Amino acid sequence: MRNSKVLVLRISLVLSLCAAVAVFAIAHLELRPRIQTLSRERDEFKTSSEQNRARAMKAEMSARELSERLGEAQSRAEAARRESTRTADENTRLLIDLEESRAVLHSAKQELARWNAIGIPPEQVASLSRDNKALASQLSQLQANHDRLARDYANAQRLLDSVLPLDAVPDLPPMHGAVLVVDPKWNFVVLDIGEAKGLVKNGVLTVSREGKLIGKVKVRRVESHRSIADILPGWEIAELREGDQVMN
Question: Rounded to two decimals, what is the model's pTM?
């Protein structure tokens, strides 16, 4: 009797084990596709994360390179702006020098033509040349005194400008001149009047042709006998030309 109970107990235990194994096998078979799917999704997420990280690093490097290039471009643009300003000033100076050279050459040609027309003998020419040199020396002294007085006047005018409001237009003595050079690219003109006639920086002059007003200019730079003036926006009624008359 006792042996029968043990046998039944063993059989029950074996059946329980078999049932557990069967349940485990069934669960494994049912969960295996889900586990495979989760594993595949995990691998895909990992791959996608690595790709996104690589893209982010690449985008960051591209942004850094773009920032560096932008900085270099800004530096080059600033250098180009400074070079453009320097070139414009140099062109203006060359234009003024060219006009002065033309005036000297024209004067020399006129002097030579006068000597040829007079037909004076060589010895008289030598005497006249000595007299001319003496007169030229006196004229040079007078010109030096005149330039000194002009500089004193210009210095006094600049001192007066320094106490005026920034936008104030200085008063100018009556003057009359002409346009020597017109630069439409930089919108300025070169005039044949300067400090010697009382012209000062920021002075405003009218430009006329055949008695008709065609524009206004504001003096930007003044020399002894030349000046540079900007064409005032809104006042250019007609295109300015060389030879146009300026006055105040």
Answer: 0.36
